[in-house]
Amino acid sequence: MLKLAINGCMGRMGQKITELALNDKDIKVVALIESADRPDVPATSFGLPVSRTLEAMKGADALIDFTLPEGTRAALKACRANKVAIVIGTTGLTAEDDVLVREASREIGIVKSSNMSIGVNVVFGLLRRSSELLKGYKVSITETHHVHKKDAPSGTAKTMAEVIEGMTKEKVADIASVREGEVVGYHKVTFESDVDTIEISHNAKTRAMFAEGALVAAKFLAGKKAGLFNMQEVLGLT
Q1: Using CB atoms within 10 A as the burial measure, which of 5, 16, 20, 237 is most buried?
Q2: pLDDT tens digits, one per residue of 200-236
Q3: For the whole model, what pTM was predicted?
Q4: Is 224 one of the annotated active-site residues of the chain?
């Protein structure tokens, strides 16, 4: 049974991950953690105590982190010190953060992805193949999220652009970001030529799809002492 800690447990993603993990017979939630700087955090969530320190992760097999960049940096350092694997779903990380992740992956198992959704990772594969066949087409990306999302473009949109650029060797310069209402996440990639327009899109209906993927990633890390992986590798799509 996987012993799981959840960082950012009172956030939208943290709440959904906790809910699904508690209903998974192969997972035991051993720690719920929330930032000491966040006000009005209850003493318990889903009947479990909420800790304000990352030290609560001690003894866990893996920690899932959907927080902010500064929270992820602290979690990564604590996971490395306590030899706990980590699933990183936080977006907005810097190039310097990526260096820290790679260094830590020499000592602990890490899954890092801009999007944990199985469906979105299938879309990444479709974009890879489409970009290979549609060279010469003008490419644009539009992403829409809720008004609370701080980073723009989204990590998913950036990954989409990276996938396309890797195949076409051309920069995707047209990425539009929209923030409105409580939209979970909508991404559309448009390939346009003089003779036709092709669109590939993904609409996230609930956060459960991200939470489900994060739990799959945590289980994937079980028994892995070190290494850096993405969701394509977790799902066997590479």
Answers
A1: 5
A2: 999 999 989 999 999 999 999 998 999 999 998 999 8
A3: 0.84
A4: no
